[in-house]
Every structure is written in structure tokens, then in C-alpha cells.
Specification:
By secondary structure, the chain is mainly α. The protein folds into two domains: 35 residues, no CATH class; 46 residues, no CATH class. α2 packs across α3 and α5 crosses α6. The N and C termini lie far apart (65 Å).
């Protein structure tokens, strides 16, 4: 027999929608898996958020200034732009900017 999550639909909805907690965070708090939380949210009639971030175009001019001209590390650029380091690195490649390791090997 399946065990019910020990949380009401109202409380689960409040935590997910109003507090903005992710399914993973809720799962840790409730001692279950994220898919279990997702299933319970759907049972409660809550439309779940997409796990994907909204796609943003690479800001090449800004990235060129921060990365090449100011020489900031990807981590700092990511913090300033509010995205992950991986996103900044993807943007760097899309803008045709060289990686720092490759530039050092060429003696730039």
C-alpha cells in the first residue's frame, strides 16, 4: 500500500507556488523523491513549473567587455548577469570568444 505524503494540498501548494520552493527542496524536506512531490502536486491540481530556464540570447557586446576587456572570470560574469557559469561559457563560445586556456597556450 502506498504511503501518502504527510502534507495537505493547501500547504504543498503554498510552499510550491507562493514560497517558490522546488520539487527537489520539497522532496528533501518531506523525505521522499522529487517525482513523488510532482505526482502529489498534480493530484492536488497544481500546474508544475518547467524544469527548463527561459532561453536568453548571448549578450555578445557585454560579454566581450567583461570577459576580454576587463578580464573578469566566468564566475564573476555569471554572478553579475544572474546566470550560471555554464551559460556564460556557452555564450562565450556562441560569440566566438576564445577560451582563456587556449589563449594562454597561443601566448596571447
Amino acid at each position: 500500500m502506498k504511503k501518502r505524503l504527510p502534507i495537505s494540498c493547501g500547504e504543498l501548494q503554498r510552499l510550491y507556488l507562493e514560497e517558490g520552493l522546488s520539487m527537489a527542496v520539497l522532496a528533501r524536506q518531506l523525505g521522499c523523491s522529487a517525482p513523488t512531490v510532482g505526482r502529489r502536486l498534480r493530484e492536488c491540481g497544481v500546474t508544475t513549473r518547467s524544469g527548463r530556464f527561459e532561453r536568453r540570447e548571448a549578450p555578445c557586446a557585454v560579454l566581450t567587455r567583461l570577459y576580454l576587456e576587463e578580464g573578469l572570470p566566468l564566475r564573476v560574469i555569471a554572478e553579475r548577469l544572474g546566470v550560471s557559469v555554464g551559460t556564460v561559457n556557452n555564450w562565450r563560445r556562441a560569440c566566438g570568444l576564445p577560451g582563456r586556456r587556449a589563449a594562454r597556450q597561443r601566448g596571447e
